[in-house]
Structures are given as C-alpha cells and as structure tokens.
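Limitations

Structures in this collection are predictions, not experimental determinations, and the ligand pose is part of the prediction. Treat each record accordingly. The example that follows, with 6-O-phosphono-beta-D-fructofuranose as the small molecule, is included so readers can see exactly what is and is not provided: the inputs are given verbatim, and the output is the predicted complex.
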Amino acid sequence: MSLVSQTPQWQALQGHWNEMKAVRMADLFAADPGRAQAMSLSAAGLYLDYSKNILTRDSLDKLLDLAEAVDLKGWTRRMFDGVPINNTEDRAVLHIALRNRSNRPILVDGKDVMPGINAVLARMEAFVGRVRSGEWTGHTGKRITDVVNIGIGGSNLGPKMVCAALAPYQSESLRVHFVSNVDGTHLVETVRRLDPETTLFIVASKTFTTQETMTNATSARDWLRAALGDSAAVARHFVAVSTNAGKVAAFGIDTANMFGFWDWVGGRYSLWSSIGLPIALAVGFERFVELLEGAHAMDEHFRTAPLKENMPALLGLIGVWYANFAGARTHAVLPYDQSLRFLPAYLQQGDMESNGKRVTREGVAIDYATGPVVWGEPGTDGQHAFYQLIHQGTQMIPADFIGAIHSHNELGDHHPKFMANFFAQTEALMRGRSFDEALAETQAAGVADGQARLLAHHRTFPGNRPTNSLLMERLTPRTLGALIALYEHRIFTQGVVWGINSFDQWGVELGKKLANVILAEIEGGKVTAKHDASTKALLERFIQHRRR
Ligand code: F6P
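Predicted complex:
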C-alpha cells in the first residue's frame, strides 16, 4: 500500500499551498462578503466558524478530495460497525457504542455489545444513587463525602477534565478528587484533609496492572486500614473500574463492586464507560447520560453528514492542511472557559497518544508529519503568557478558540469582557498590523521619527494567523459531550488521512520496561544492568545520595 503522500490529491495540495501561502485572509474576506457565513456550520449544539483560515473553497475541495482518496467515509463506517480497525491489537474501536443512545445493535464477533453496555450503565446508576443518597455508607456507618479516583492517563484525564468542566452541576455534599501521579506527594496531599471514614476510593485502571495506579491504590488501602484499624473496611471504601476481574479480586476488591468495560474501549476514549463513574458521582447519573447524549448527537453528525458539512471532518482536514502543507508543528487549544482548564491536557493524550505514530497501519515508514504537539491554556491567562509568540513569533500556530455565549457565573461584566478578548484575539491574529499602520500610530503619539520607525518594526504584527472559533450557548453536559466527541472524530479523521492506527500506543512501552529494570537496581542498591554512561552515572549518584 503506497503512502498518502504519493497520491495525486496530496500532491495537488502541495502545489496549492505554494499558491496560497502568499494569500492574505483579510483580502479573502474583503473579496467575499459571504465568506464567514459560508465557512461556518452548526452541529450538536456547537457552532464552528472556520473562515479565519488560509483557505478558499478550492482549497477545501482539494482537502475533501484527499478525504475521498483515503476513504474517510469507509473508515468511519467500519469504526461504527465494530470492524477491528485497531489492527495491531486486533480490536474494534467502539467508544461510540458506549454513548449509542439509539441502542442500534453494534456487533463485535457477531454479538451485540449494547446489552452489556446498558447493563453496566444500570449498575452505575444504582451505585451512584446509593452513594449520593447516603444509603451507601462507609465502614463505620457514615455517609460518603469524598470520592478519590485513583487512575492515570485515560483513567484520569477524561473524568478529571469533565468533573472540572461540570463543576456548576455539582453539589458540595460529595467532592471528587483525582490522584494520578506516582509521586507520593499527590496521594499524601490529597488525603491529608480527608476523613477515612467518609472517603470512597475508585481504583480506575483498564488493565489493573499500571504501576502508578497500583502503587497509589496500595498506599491508599494502607492509609485506610491504618486509620480504621480493620481490613474489612476495604470492602466499603474501595470500588474498581477495570476490564480485569482477576486482578481486581487479587487486590482485595469484591468484584460485586467492580464496574467493567471492554478491550474495544481505548483508555483515552474511555470516559464514556464506567471510567466515567466519578463524573456520574459528581454530577448525578442523569447528567452523565446527558453527556453521553451530547456525544451521540456529534457521532450521528459525523457518521451521516456529507464531508463538506461535517464539523469533525472539516476540522481534521484543516489541521492536515497546516501540519502537512504549511509546516505547522503544533496546535493550540484555547478554551475561553475556566472550567475547561483541563481540556488541553486531556486532548494532549487524546491526540498525541493516538496520532503520534511513524509508520502506517501496514508498518511502512511515513515521510510526512503526523500528530502535532497539542497544547494550550485557558484564555485570558494564556494571553498574558504565550500569545506573544502566536502573534509575533516566527512559526505558524493554528489555534482553536472555544467559548460559551452564557456563563454559569454571570458576575457583573466579567463574561462580556472575557469574550471580548476571545473575539479580539482571533481578529487580531487574522488582521495583524502593518508597518505603515504601526508607524502612523507611533508618530501620532509624538515619537520622534527615527525612534518611531524602530518601534514600528517591533509593533508590526504579520497577521494571517489561522484560528477556528467554536461557540456554544452554554457549557452543559450535552454541549461538553459534543465538544469531546468532536475532537475525538477530528483525531480519527487525521489518523485516516495519515494512514496510521490511532488506537494503539506502543510508544509508551519501552520506558515502562526500562523503569522496571532500574527500579530493581535502585531497590538492590547497585547498578547491575547495561546502561549508557550518562544513565549509569545518574543512577549511581541517586543510589549513593539516597544511602547517605
Ligand atoms: O500511558 C499508556 C496507557 O496505556 C494509556 O493509554 C492509558 O490510558 C493509561 O496507560 C492507563 O492505563 P490503565 O487504565 O490500564 O491503568
């Protein structure tokens, strides 16, 4: 199978970028009063304006030709139909089934997965009801006030991001905390203020073998046993979310208190499964279902809308345009919503673990860029930190701006001020400021000519920096579900264009393996394995200084 870079559609785009790179978006807007209208669309409660991009209708047609050439629609169908498109692990990719609110049968190996999904959801609903009502108590009979989710990667980032995003829907009577890092500080600082009698731990791990999670879970169990003085307490204070019942039982958690999921749910796509238990505990099961419904609405849009009106597909293709033809190496996600502060970190795993690949599905080395570095922080904090580089640095950084029309916390004029910044930044990034404009402004301020010219160079903004603007009425469980699904399908679209498997993650294996070798050396107090000179010296220093 040849690389996508050999196709005529790819090569046409290469030639097209050479024509487009000198084109100014401001001129495109001036020439076409209908541009903003034509390059915007709504789906699943989200409104996307993608008109502030360096592209024309012709560019979009060429990108859509590329999508046709790689059979994006066919791959989408295969994913939704449960075909094992994760070819290195021989697994279907069915996070879409977890939120399939239509209940349409989805078959894996000839068996409908929906009854199993619905059964786990029913168990989650019952458990959430019992904890939130106070019926489920701790070992000493007290009501649960704090839930600590112990998990890492996909077993942490998604639920943590969603719980923060839906904070306005949470009551004060049940607080949810997240411990992920194996740095003991994370667990110690989290439980320091908690009462063991009223704390419930969720050990969330697809494999139930992840070193960080199992270490934290073991220490949490020790903390609880020491405080309550009774090993039997574990049964009332620990539940598990996993696909590995054997390991859950071996850890000492009753499998009656285990919520399962399936190997066709990738870790970074798992918040819709029982990995979402902390979300449901935090906001209630009905809100969790609304989150699933929002994602389902986006799934249906992605599955059925023609590519030229398909929000995730368009965003994915625009990303390909910049990554592969304009040479952009990073992609910024800039939520204008404080409660979406963990979205960039969540999307880092979602995107970079999915599309950080260097061979095609067939194992052929790739000669083009794949996943960009994804990063970001909420506005307006980011404006006072790194926007300088986006405006005046030497590299192009395509950025997504995300905001809501109504805030959950309408406080005086905060929200109008906040969103004024959103709109101003996207306008400034597109429009820029020419040298002549900067000079005129500086001269008008009475600066002497030589200095005015110097300052004008520094105050010139090249502009023509691309952005997408995503708006929603309000950040609700539904719009949040749609937003996350939008990014999942954007990632999928790009993976299909690049011909890679977006659903495995072999790149995290090697470091884990070496860490186990090194841990044995640290514990044995002697470097025994073969290492490079740098690693050996660092290890010896660490061991020696620990001994002192
Ligand atoms: O970082 C690698 C990874 O396998 C992720 O894909 C996954 O989300 C994370 O580790 C946690 O895995 P588990 O849920 O099995 O503990």
